[in-house]
Amino acid sequence: MKKSLTSNGNGWELHIPKPILKLLNINPIDTKVLFEIKNKVLYVTQLDFNYDSERYKNALVKKFTKRGGGYSLFISQVILELININPELDKVEIEVDDKILKIKKA
Asked: Where are the domains of the chain?
């Protein structure tokens, strides 16, 4: 699925449709997710219920933000540069693989 990013302050937001969140078994109100980058792809995975802040103290952990009728993830400009996305020109492709949300340049 191809999506555009929306400007928000010094970064960008990606609206995640509710059906995608259901496929990932994510409750966006309570869930924290882990951002990891591999081969110019941003991997977003749900942290387990026993979230240990000490274990993830050097990791990029995010929460969903309520936007309109859905939820979005804030992605900083630095992260977008690491995955080679210019949000003013490019669209992103989101893909669900098992319980992982993959975000990459479309």
From this structure: 2-105
